[in-house]
Amino acid sequence: MEVFKVLIFWKDAPQESIYDGSTKTLVDITVLKKKNVFLLFSTLDISQEDISMLIPIYEHIKKQGNQYKIVWIPIVEEWNDKQKKIFNSLKSEMPWYVLHHFAPIKGIKYITEELHFKQKPLLVVMNPRGMILHDNAFHMIHVWGVKGFPFTKSKELTITKESMWIDSLFVQINIKIKWEEEKFFIIYGGKKPEWIKEFTEAARALENHPNIKQTNTSIKLVCLADEKPIVVSKFWNKVESLFLTKMHDRKNTITQQVEKLLSYKDEDGWAIVTKGSDVVFVGHGKTVMTTMKESGKWIIGVNKNGFEESIIKHHGGIVKTIHICSHLEIHNATGKVPDFIECPDCNRTMEVFITYKCCHKDEDKTNGDLEQINMVKETSVYVPTLMGCSHESCIMVDH
C-alpha cells in the first residue's frame, strides 16, 4: 500500500479514496494493505475486449480469498468534464477497484520511463511488500487466461515450458482441437482465398494418398480461414501476445517458431505442421504449397522414414531455394521492447522502421461521449514497430 501511495499521490495532496466496482462505493486505500495488487494502467481508450478479458481473472482471484486485488489506474494528461464522464462510464463496467483521483499522478515519469507505459494497457503485478513480480502480465493473460495465475515471471516461465505453445493459441477462441499424440495436424490460413482453395486441394490429396493410408498415417486439416473474422483476429492477437512474452528469450526454439508465424500474418498463406501438439515446422505459403504439390517426390520415403522426417526434409530443402523476405509488425507492444530482434530464418538483426496507419473506421456506438473518444481513437495515427530482413540486407517491407 505504501508503494501505491508513493506512486500516485504527491506528498501534501489529499489521498483520495478508491472506487470499489463490486459495491459501487468509495473505500479507503487501506483495503490494499498487505495485498498482492495487479495495477492496470491504461488511457481512457481501453477497449471493451480488454475489460472483458479481465473479468474471468477478477472472478478467479475472488475465489482465492482476499489476498489479490485489481486496481485500474487511468492515465490522463489533463482531466476535463468530458473525460470525467467517459471515466465514470468505464468504471461502471469494472467490478474491481478504480483509482478515483483527478489530480496529476506523482509517479507518471516512473510509469512511462521505468514501466514503459506506451498508451496500450499495462498490468503490473506487485506483492504485498511492493516488489514487482511481473512488469507486464497483460500479454500473459491474453495467451493463457486464468491458467497463468498468479501471473508472475516465474509462473510465466513454468507455464511456457509445460504448455505446448500451439495449444495456447486456441484457448478461449472457440476452436476445439482434440490433440492426439500420433496424429499429424496441418493448421493453415492466409489472406488470399485462391491460395486457401489451392492449398486445401493439395493437402486433401496428400491426406488421401495411398502411401499415407498404407502407413496408417493420420492427418487432420484445420483451416483457420473457415472461422469468423473475429476468431481469426483473436488468434493473431494471441500469436502477438505470445511472441511478446517470449521475445526476450531469443535463442529459444519456441520463440523462433512463434516469430515466424507472426511474420506470416499478412501473407497470402501459411501453415503449421504438428504431431499431436508438438510443432514440426511453421512454413510460409510459398514453401508449404510447393511441399504439398511436390509430395510425389518425397511421399515414397514415408514407408521407410516416416511422415514427419520426410516432410521436414523436403520442406527444408525448398526453404533454401525460395527467397522470402521476413517482416514483423508489432501493434500491441507494451512494456520494454528489446533493442533488436533477430530474423527467425537467418539470425541477422532485423532493421527497425516506423509506420503510420489510419483506417477511418466508424463503429456502432451508443454513448455520445464514448463515441467521441472512440472516433479519436480510430482516426489518430498509431506507431507499430515494423521490422524487415531480406536475409542479405535488411530492408523496409511495404505493406
From TrEMBL:
* Domain of life, per lineage: Eukaryota
**TM regions (residue ranges):** none
Q: Which InterPro entries match?
A: SEO_C, SEOA
Q: Which Pfam families match?
A: SEO_C (PF14577)
A GO BP term, please?
phloem development
Q: Where is the Sieve element occlusion C-terminal domain?
A: 230-360
Name under which the protein is recorded:
Sieve element occlusion protein
User: Can you name the source organism?
Assistant: Trifolium medium
Lineage, highest ranks first: Eukaryota, Viridiplantae, Streptophyta, Embryophyta, Tracheophyta
